[in-house]
Amino acid sequence: MNVPVLLQGVRKVYSGRIEALKGVDLVLTEGEAVGIVGPNGAGKTTLIKLVLGLLRPTAGSVKVWGEDAYSLPRLLRQKIGLLLEEQGIYGNLTVEENLLFWARVYGVEPARIGELLQEWELKEKSKDLVKRLSAGMRQKLAILKALVHHPQLLVLDEPTSNLDPAARKKVVELLQSYRAEGKTLLVTSHDLFDIERVCTRIVLLRRGRIVVQGTMEELQRKLGVGREVRILVSRKLPGPLAAELTKRFAFRLVGDRELIVSDEQAETRALVRELVERGIDVDRVEERRVTLEDLYTNILKEDEK
Question: How many Cα atoms are found within 13 Å in the side-chain-facing hemisphere of 105?
Fold first, then answer.
């Protein structure tokens, strides 16, 4: 069976010789949720538009279910839900009219619209013109437009932008449920916390190239970033003891009373035991979880060396 998305050796050069993508290879398998992260100008939106067939690659190929993305047959195109910065909603139509329009495009029963409006708390706004909505409400509507036909492939560019915390949580939960149903997701976002909660694989784009990709655990291994434990002791370590422990254990000293361990659990246990045996009381031991933001920052630092 053909994979939902396959990019091979993809380059995209815009007029003015701006090279947005420089030989990108990427595969999305059925049921994967892949998050694309990277700084502004990395090529994230270009990649999304190539997958959607809105741009033609300068070199290489972009396949969706085995077909060329730029000339994708209509039946396959209707299996894709999309959200772009342009949103694809019409300001001079009401909320309900926008959704009914897209329901007709996708051959969806009108009853589906009422369900979505109710679920997303837009029922009271259904007769309002879109141009009078707040940015957050328009974003909600654009997401509903992407979901109206139960797509098999969901391609979303910055889905949680302009949303309040409650709406953001709802979008994240929705994307998690789509992933659980075996649907395929391709998502870009500046909100690394959302990407981490939704995506099973993370791809970092920088200057048109994929720098690194993998699950959170794989990225941690590739970048040498592991668990981090903070040990707070009751008093300043005597100089000779600090020097001795530094040679025996992998930790760094922050200030007078804080030790940061970035190694395995056995190392932390052994260090705590040694401190107590040497008469240094341990006030607190806290584990700090490594986040996507930590990995992202580390990747960019490595890339700039």
Answer: 18
